[in-house]
Design goal:
Blueprint: E1 2-4, H1 5-8, E2 11-12, E3 15-16, E4 25-26, E5 51-54, E6 59-62, E7 71-72, E8 78-80, E9 84-87, H2 95-102, H3 105-113, H4 125-129, E10 132-134, H5 138-181, E11 188-190, H6 191-194, E12 198-200, E13 216-219, E14 224-225, E15 228-229, E16 235-237, H7 239-244, E17 255-257, E18 266-268, E19 277-278, E20 282-284, H8 292-300, H9 302-311, H10 322-325, E21 329-331, H11 335-378
Parallel strand pairs: 4-8, 13-19
Antiparallel strand pairs: 1-10, 2-9, 3-5, 5-8, 6-7, 6-9, 11-21, 12-20, 13-16, 14-15, 17-18, 17-20
Length: 388
């Protein structure tokens, strides 16, 4: 049996202008995609425009970017972002069953097909509520929920183990960098003294230079991760614009670092990006006394990250300026020792990167298995009677 969502689980629209002081707040960022797990370790700020109240037993469905599959079932009363549609299942529909059903690829795909808006695509609550959902007997719902709770819990445990393995890789590598650079036992010099110069990318209206058909790569903070510059996601500007913006022109061997938000995440500009340009990144020019790859490892090490945080300004969002970066203290062994350290770290990082890629591939397969399982159980492809 199928029924329109608005009859199976009517929407609640209890809007409040301000968040009650004692109420827990759930933002879209607090819901894990495709699993519905609530991530409340880091409370989010309430966006202007009020909140929507929900009660235990309600199901929250994200209407902004529905392809992210943000569907939660809180076990407490609270308030949430107005970007959620709050559904209250009728007495003949289990909230647990409804959440599983709204996490199927079928439902998420249908919602995504009905979005409007380019930058902030969302589906209207009216359109969402017109969608038909499965409505089996309450006994069948309990059987399906029991089966899926057991099987998804097993898969989620495996995914959690894989994530712990990735974290362990990061901790191991951080410890290795810290051990090899040993800043306590080596003389340190200011970044200003060892680099070939420090500057910053385009800060004022960088988007005005972007051209889809531009010939020059134009990097932003989102294109930079630890030790890596993502050429695929970079925007582009024209050759003429890059010539006018000569101060922020990048050469192979320079180091680009994120300035705002999570300052210090750094990568060496690769040969394929020689002559590119950038927006609002900290640029450390290649110096004669320090190997760029060695300096990049120092920047990304626990020692380096603690320095960036200490040098940064700003209360709501950390930011590092050139005037701050010049005082970064660089442990400076001989050039021969720098190369030895870099060779050791490069070899270890290649091994860890390969391991992390394999683990991520396994995790992706587990997530696909989870979704396939949910869809099969909800649509009756698996007979769960007696299995749960």
């Amino acid at each position: 049996m199928r029924m329109r969502l608005k009859y199976a689980a009517p929407a609640r629209e209890e809007r409040l202008q301000t968040k009650p002081a004692e109420a827990l707040y759930v933002a879209l960022e607090n819901v894990e995609s495709w699993s519905g797990r609530l991530l409340l370790d880091h409370p989010m700020d309430v966006v202007e425009g009020g909140v929507t109240r929900f009660r235990t037993g309600d199901v929250l469905v994200g209407k902004l970017r529905p392809y992210l599959a943000k569907v939660a079932r809180p076990t407490f009363d609270g308030v949430c972002s107005t970007e959620f549609v709050v559904l209250r299942p009728t007495s003949r529909l289990l909230a647990e069953f409804l959440q599983y059903q709204l996490l199927t690829a079928e439902f998420i795909g249908e919602m995504s097909s009905w979005t409007f808006g380019t930058k902030m695509p969302r589906v209207s609550p009216e359109r969402m509520l017109k969608t038909e959902v499965m409505f089996p007997s309450i006994e069948e719902q309990w059987a399906i929920v029991g089966y899926l709770d057991k099987e998804t819990s097993r898969i989620d445990s495996l995914i959690n183990y894989k994530n712990q393995l990735l974290d362990a890789c990061e901790r191991f590598f951080d410890g290795l960098i810290e051990h090899l650079i040993q800043p306590r036992d080596r003389p340190c010099e200011r970044l200003k003294q060892v680099s070939g110069g420090i500057t910053v990318g385009v800060v004022v209206n960088p988007s005005t230079y972007v051209e889809e058909q531009g010939e020059v790569l134009f990097f932003r903070g989102v294109d930079i991760s630890r030790f890596s510059v993502n050429v695929e996601t970079a925007q582009r500007i024209s050759v003429e614009s890059s010539q006018r913006l000569h101060k922020s022109r990048l050469n192979a061997g320079d180091i680009v670092s994120i300035r705002v938000g999570d300052p210090g995440i750094s990568a060496v500009v690769p040969g394929e990006a020689d002559g590119s340009n950038c927006a609002s990144l900290l640029i450390t020019r290649k110096g004669a006394r320090v190997d760029s790859r060695y300096l990049c490892y120092v920047f990304n090490s626990p020692y380096g990250r603690s320095q960036w945080r200490a040098l940064a300004n700003g209360a709501a969002q950390l930011q590092v300026n050139v005037s701050d970066a010049v005082d970064f203290r660089v442990p400076l062994p001989s050039t021969v020792s720098q190369r030895e350290i870099v060779n050791r770290l490069d070899a270890e990082w290649r091994s860890i990167r390969a391991l992390k890629a394999a683990v991520r591939s396994q995790t992706d397969l587990l997530r696909e298995q989870r979704q396939t399982l949910i869809t099969a159980a909800i649509t009756g492809q698996i007979d769960v009677r007696g299995v749960a």
